[in-house]
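Hi support team,

I submitted a single chain yesterday and got back a structure, but I'm not sure I'm reading the token output correctly. Could someone confirm the output below corresponds to the sequence I sent? I've pasted both exactly as they appear in my results page.

Thanks,
R.
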Amino acid sequence: MQVLAGVGAATPPLVVDYLVVAGGGGGGGNTSPGYECAGGGAGGLRCTVTATGGGGSLESALTLTVNTNYTVTVGGGGAGANNAQGANGSNSVFNTITSTGGGGGGGGNGISGQTGGSGGGRSQGSAAAGSGTANQGYAGGAQGGFLGGNGGGGAGAIGGSNGDNGGPGGAGVSTLITGSSVPYGGGGGGKTHVNGTAPSAALGGTGGGGNGAYKSTTAPTAGTANTGGGGGGGGANVFNGAAGGSGVVILRYPADYTISNPGGGLTLSTSTSGTNKITTVTAGTGNVSWA
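Hi R., thanks for writing in. Yes, this is the structure output for that exact sequence:
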């Protein structure tokens, strides 16, 4: 236990709770008419508060040392595709904790969704959906034999399938690490077939997933920044897939300590909630240290 100089009161140990969300995968696309493509998978999600990804047990908080540098990286979202799979998102890192970028959605003719933190969905005519990573996220939607694109997997659920209509993205998970319940890690929705009968686009999963394209009239939407949401699927020589959303790293620790970013490189902000401080890192790569 440390002691505050001149006060005699013991400070709590530097125990840090975290939420580490990787960048979401981009939606698939296709330049050939008649092929509807899938939504991207959400970025992998690891958390010590409320819930973590993939239905796993909560992660354990880290006990750290003052005046020591710890690496932080916020992963970017993967690009949406023109005639291929969407690109995978990039990993996010805090010290020893790495969350895996989301898998790109299936696109092109017979091209599978990619494996990632959560897997990209299976597009029309493609071989398979992408798998998720254990304790981080779920697989993309895998149903075959229809004309709509499947949804990308989310941190909280498998991507959806919906016949000729695009499948919805898998749901994310909500955490109270900031003091309020906020969802992260939603999968991207798949593209609805040009002759489908759906009244609207397939929605992205709660937690920042982008919506899939609807027929030839509505473009897919990107995953929301700093949620790790997957991008919506495009295709049918109409729309490219949409990009995945960037990830985020959120750190909660006793208010007795002050965080810094030695050497710069990170975009971060800190607030106080009760006896804790909460630092949200929204971009960059660098180090954090506490005093």
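A quick pointer for reading it: The chain has a mean pLDDT of 93. Let us know if anything else looks off.

Best,
Support desk
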